[in-house]
Design goal:
By secondary structure, this protein is an alpha/beta fold. The chain has eight helices and 13 strands. It is 34% helix and 30% strand. The strands form three sheets. It has a seven-stranded mixed sheet, with helices on both faces. Strand 6, helix 4 and strand 7 (139-141) form a beta-alpha-beta unit. Helix 3 packs across helix 8 (251-274) and helix 7 crosses helix 8. The radius of gyration is 21 Å and the shape is globular.
Length: 289
């Protein structure tokens, strides 16, 4: 019979003996470390750690592990989480009218490359309801007219949050969802909403960024996945990707290359989140991969 496995993530003020105390706790509770990573940030003076371990004592319950580690966590003033490694995180995908990231994530999910559950897809358009149906995933069409009033936008976001709560969503992925979230919704989803955008910001904002980039003769294009915050496109960065381009490539070619990069970068960010590899460090992230 396989032993249950867990992933412990933590951050606290850096000090001597943290690794020793954590590993000693696990050994004393009948646990065996499978892999471990840690990082001490000299600037923030914070220490970060991720430990993947198995519990080999049949008498050791989840509740006792949580309770007992809470004592150590309080002693060291830790921000910590203990996750069941076998539990698949529940992810909600949001999309508008551009579907390459949605399609890529759904394929990775279906093929087992992305170990998650996807109980809902939300869109302000109906373009991808058939795609959702092909994966047997409920599709929620929540339209929002151009120039919608603040009341209409608030009502739409309240419906989104109802879906999030009803489906016990762990992560919301803005897979090219082309609506700006309100500060209230950003706060409600703090640390559990990821967005993807081209890396041209702030130089190439607005419509058709790859056409703008082509007009300027760029030599490098890319994409950035980041946590959603009320500061538009300025949340903590999770992953980035780039590709060299040249003068022979037209805007359609740049768009195709850019969409490939966006898909890969977003998929990495989602996978790292679901594997509990991302820890927040102020306005930055620590990624254990």
């Amino acid at each position: 019979m396989a032993h249950p496995e867990y992933i412990l993530t933590l951050s606290c003020l850096d000090q001597r003996g943290i690794v020793h105390r954590v590993s000693g706790f696990l050994a004393d509770h009948g646990c065996n470390i499978i892999d471990s990573a840690q990082f001490g940030d000299g600037q923030s003076k914070l220490f970060f750690m991720r430990v993947h371990f198995s519990s080999e004592d049949a008498a050791m319950s989840d509740a006792r592990l949580h309770t007992d580690f809470g004592v150590l966590g309080d002693a060291l003033q830790m921000n910590w989480q203990l996750h069941d490694a076998a539990k698949k995180p529940r992810v909600m995908l949001m999309v508008s009218k551009i579907g390459h990231c949605l399609n890529d994530l759904l394929f990775r999910y279906k093929s087992g490359l992305l170990p998650v559950e996807i109980p809902a897809i939300v869109s302000n358009h109906t373009d991808f309801y058939q795609l959702a149906a092909s994966y047997n995933i409920p599709f929620h069409h929540l339209p929002l007219a151009t120039g919608a009033s603040a009341e209409d936008k608030r009502a739409q976001e309240e419906r989104i949050m109802e879906i999030v709560n009803a489906n016990r969503i762990d992560l919301v992925v803005l897979a090219r969802y082309m609506q700006i979230l309100s500060p209230e919704m950003c706060e409600a989803l703090r640390g559990r909403a990821i967005n993807i955008h081209h890396s041209f910001l702030p130089s190439f904002k607005g419509a058709k960024p790859y056409y703008q980039a082509h007009d300027r003769g760029v030599k490098l294009i890319g994409a950035t996945a980041h946590f959603v915050t009320s500061d538009l496109d300025e949340g903590p960065i999770i992953e980035q990707g780039v590709e060299r381009v040249d003068h022979s490539m037209g805007p359609d070619t740049l768009t195709a290359i850019g969409r490939d990069i966006e898909s890969v970068v977003l998929a990495r960010a989602v996978k790292w989140f679901t594997e509990h590899r991302i820890l927040l460090n102020g306005h930055k992230t620590v990624i254990f991969n």
